[in-house]
Amino acid sequence: MKIIIFLLFTVLGLAGCGGKESAEQAAQDESQKMLMMDEVTAIDELPSFLKEGLSKEEQDELRKQIMPTLDDGLTPEERFQKLRRDAEAGDPDAQNALGAMFYTGEAVSRDAAGNIMDYDPVSAAGWFFRAAEKGHAEAQFNLGLLYLHGDGVEKDIETALKWFTQSAEQGNADAQNNLGVIYLTGEGVEQDSDEAIKWFEKAAEQGNEEAKENLEAVRSGQN
Q1: Cα diameter, the chain
Q2: Which Gene3D superfamilies match (predicted)?
Q3: In this structure, what is the dihedral angle of CA atoms 196, 198, 199, 203, given to the nearest 10 degrees?
Q4: Interval 80-105 mean pLDDT
C-alpha cells in the first residue's frame, strides 16, 4: 500500500537539517541572536532547490507566496525591512512570512563567525512559533513540520502533532493530510486508521491531491 506523505511548507520545500534548540527558546533568544547576524534580502530569485521541477509560471506563483508584495515598488532590502518591522510589531502574517524567508535562505543569515548560512531553521522556528501562538494556521503547520523532522528544533512527534492538529482544526488541508499520515503510520501516537481516514477525507474535500491518493491507498488496502 503506497502512502504519500506530504511534507511541504505552505510556501516552500522542506529540507532536512537537525537542530537542538526548541522553538520556545528560539523565540526568546531571537533578539540576542540578531546581534550576531547580518541580515540582507537576496535578489528576487528562488533558491535553486526550490526551482527544481517547476515551470516558470509555478516559480512566479511560489515567489508571490513567499513574498506576496513583490509588486509593491519596494527594493528587496526595503521590503525585508518592512516585513521585519511588521513581524516585530506582532503581525502574525509577517512573522510567518519572515520565518519562511529565513528557512528558504531568501533572508540571508550569518553565524557568530560571520559565515553565510544557506538557510536558518532556528530563526525560522522562532518566527513560526510567535505566529503559531497567535493562532496562525500556516505557521502552526510550518512549525509542526520542523518538529516532525527535528529541523531547527528538537525532533518531537508529540509537539508536531499538537501544531498539526491546531492547524488542521482551522481547516489547513496540508496539516489535515499530515495528521492522517501520522495516525495511519502510528508514528508517535497510537495507530488509528479511522482517525487517519477522517483527516484524509477532510483534506481531500478541499482538493488536496496527496490526501486523495492517501485515501485511495488506505481504502484499497482495506479491500
Answers
A1: 59
A2: Tetratricopeptide repeat domain
A3: 130
A4: 91
Residue with the three cell numbers 529540507: 15
Give the residue from 119, 109, 151, 96 showing the smallest Cα distance to 47: 119
Residue 102 to residue 50: CA distance in whole angstroms: 14
Q: Angle, to 10 degrees, between the axis of helix 92-104 and the axis of helix 76-88? A: 130
Which backbone phi and psi does 108 adopt, to 5 degrees? Answer: -85, 135
The residue behind cell 509560471 is 57
Closest CA to 140 of 179, 181, 191, 86: 179
Strand partners, 110: 116
* DSSP helix/strand/coil, 14: coil
Is the pLDDT at 208 greater than 70, yes or no? yes
- The predicted-structure confidence for 108-139, as pLDDT tens digits, reads as follows 777 777 778 788 899 999 999 999 999 999 99
Please, what CATH class does the domain formed by 23-155 belong to? mainly alpha
Nearest C-alpha neighbor of 40 from the set 97, 107, 86: 107
Map out the domains of the chain as residue ranges: 23-155, 171-223
The model's pLDDT over 12-70, given as tens digits with 9 standing for 90+, comes to 333 233 333 455 555 444 433 332 233 332 334 555 545 667 787 777 776 666 555 45
- Distance, in Å, from the CA atom of 155 to the CA atom of 108, rounded to the nearest integer, reads 24
Residue 1 contacts residue 217 (beta carbons within 8 Å) = yes
Measuring CA to CA, which residue among 144, 146, 176 is closest to residue 160? 144
